[in-house]
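Incident log, support desk, overnight shift.

02:14 A customer reports that sequence design results differ from what the structure should imply. Their input is reproduced verbatim below. On-call engineer (initials T.W.) acknowledged and began investigating.
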């Protein structure tokens, strides 16, 4: 990579559908673009809902439609596009794209190849991806982990030397979440719990519903609002109905603006069973909400218990209900929300993340 002010960067993802990884990659591309770097985004499959944000910013998007090609034809197509884009670095996200990125990097003569690992769970059930990840080590200049937890779980099995690995924590665009006062507004016993996320098994919504149902008699005016859509929606609605909680637990569907959701809540609850470093936690903290979360992934690294919230083990409805009751009974929700916001604003902004990646790109031996 030539040591010049602007860097030519290709961000590579599988799709641009709504998801935490995709959100992070798009936000990083937008931030790098606004800093004056030359950006392209490549999608191994098709694009998706987030493409419109890149189009609006004038960032070109290339779709390779992997399902239409053999692996060899796909790599050749990617290499041809890389020769046209002439990037200094190709930056892929998670193992599913990495062996294609590394092979195309070698074929096209791209100076540097980086991969960000967002979660230790991203190759579960697809073991060949990790095998390929190790095989392309010679063409991989650096592996980034989004938190210490992911690094500790993956680095030993990947076999990359420590000098080729680092942690860069996720960051978010914070402005729209700072409009909300860091002051939960409920008057007990009325308290509004809520969560945002895809309705899929890994997010633990069924456990959350059971937890709320068990504490509901002790908090007769409390509410639980669940924002998101996904394949488990019919099952979760049936669970709510079976528990007789239709008037207390509301499945609100997908939301396009989490900042408005946070304005209606007093405590953000995150019931996931496995994670990396979830963006929605950073968003809720920036909005000034106290956090109740399972102790998964990088969450304990960013949510100190009890200063910014309450943590419990995943998959345990009784434990989750216990910490939700602790939050509901706290006289310090406002102070805890302020501390959560302070930590998020100081440590998890998009500019900090973007600058860290730029410094990494410029430091890579293969790019000099």
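02:41 Re-run completed on a clean worker. Output:
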């Amino acid at each position: 990579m030539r040591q010049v002010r602007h860097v030519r960067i290709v961000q590579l993802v599988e799709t641009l559908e709504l998801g935490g990884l995709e959100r992070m990659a798009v936000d990083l591309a937008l931030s790098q673009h606004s800093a004056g770097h030359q950006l392209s985004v490549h999608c191994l499959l098709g694009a998706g809902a987030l493409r419109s944000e890149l189009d609006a910013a004038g960032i070109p998007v290339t779709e390779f439609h992997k399902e239409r090609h053999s692996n060899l034809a796909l790599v050749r197509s990617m290499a041809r596009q890389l020769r046209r884009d002439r990037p200094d670095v190709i930056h892929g996200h998670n193992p599913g794209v990495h062996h294609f990125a590394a092979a195309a990097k070698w074929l096209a003569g791209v100076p540097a190849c980086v991969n960000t690992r967002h979660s230790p769970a991203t190759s579960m059930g697809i073991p060949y991806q990790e095998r390929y990840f190790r095989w392309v080590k010679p063409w991989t200049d650096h592996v980034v982990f989004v938190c210490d937890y992911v690094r500790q779980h993956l680095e030993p099995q990947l076999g990359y030397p420590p000098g080729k690995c680092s942690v860069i924590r996720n960051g978010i665009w914070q402005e729209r979440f700072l409009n909300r006062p860091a002051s939960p507004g409920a008057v007990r016993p009325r308290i509004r719990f809520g969560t945002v996320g895809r309705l899929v098994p890994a997010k633990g919504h069924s456990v959350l519903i059971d937890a709320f149902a068990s504490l509901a008699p002790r908090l007769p005016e409390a509410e639980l609002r669940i924002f998101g859509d996904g394949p488990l929606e019919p099952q979760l609605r049936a669970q709510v109905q079976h528990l007789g909680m239709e008037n207390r637990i509301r499945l609100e569907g997908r939301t396009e603006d989490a900042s408005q959701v946070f304005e209606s809540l007093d405590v953000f609850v995150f019931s996931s069973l496995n994670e990396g470093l979830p963006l929605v936690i950073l968003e809720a903290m920036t909005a000034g909400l106290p956090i109740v979360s399972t102790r998964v992934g990088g969450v304990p690294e960013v949510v100190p218990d009890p200063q910014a919230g309450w943590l419990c083990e995943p998959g345990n409805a009784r434990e989750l209900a216990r910490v939700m009751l602790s939050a509901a009974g706290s006289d310090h929700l406002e102070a805890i929300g302020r501390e959560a916001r302070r930590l998020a604003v100081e440590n998890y902004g998009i500019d900090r993340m973007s600058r860290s990646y730029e410094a990494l790109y410029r430091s890579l031996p293969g790019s000099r």
